[in-house]
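Our working data are protein records whose layout never changes between entries. Getting from the letters to the tokens is the skill we practise here. To make this concrete, we reproduce a full record directly below:
***
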Amino acid sequence: PVRLDYYERSHLARIQLSWARVGAAPDTGGQPSATVTASWLNVRTGPGIQNSRIDTIPNGTVLTLIARNDDASWVQVILPDGRMGWVSAAYISTTYPLSNLGVG
């Protein structure tokens, strides 16, 4: 529930209300998920900047986590459109321990 109290005393008052969804991520089918924290995040064909970029995704995008590289610095993900790729773990936020993902 949202409650907004408003009192106008001078006929010059103005009120504006807006909100954004925070919290629960879209359904990822029980798979762990993460949210992009960078302004824009490159998605690559493999773990590392030497791999080709396949897309760039914006801040707030929710990704499904699939696997990690040996040191969990890169994570294999499923993008919202179903494509798979790799992102740097430094630019995502998750409560799921990346070390629990299998090595991909």
User: Anything to note?
Assistant: Residues 31 and 72 are 17 Å apart (CA to CA).
